[in-house]
Amino acid sequence: MTILDATRRRGLFARPDVEAGELGLVLANLRLLFNTRPGDAAAAPDFGVPDLADLLHQFPAASGPLQQSLRAAITRHEPRLRGVQVQAAPSGHALEICAQLGGVALRLRAVLTASGRIDLR
Questions:
Q1: Are 97 and 70 in contact, with CB atoms under 8 Å apart?
Q2: What is the 8-class DSSP label of residue 115?
Q3: How many structural domains compose the chain?
Q4: Which domain holds residue 114?
Q5: What is the pLDDT of residue 84?
Q6: pLDDT tens sequence across 35-58
Q7: Which of 81, 22, 74, 15 lies closest to 49, judged by CA?
Q8: What CATH number has the domain bearing residue 22?
């Protein structure tokens, strides 16, 4: 199921507590988390992930440390997501993030850009 499927999902098996608004809040938090460096947020010094620009040139060989870093950050700073798994995407400079939000399965694509930022799709 894609993000769009989860937001459009209505019917017998839809979870009413997982609304597009909650999903939007989670996605906004993940974007902020992935594009913040540890130490940038004074109130939460461990918030963020290390600078990934150097890893871009070593991709896909460096995907292991990147996967671990993203999974640890998500687990620590986004408690609404359960069962977080991060794995290399089959193509490009991307990782797939699978998780549960209120019982609804989500699959996100985290793309590492040339500038070292992470875009969620």
A1: yes
A2: T
A3: 1
A4: 3-120
A5: 97
A6: 999 899 889 899 988 876 666 666
A7: 74
A8: 3.10.450.40
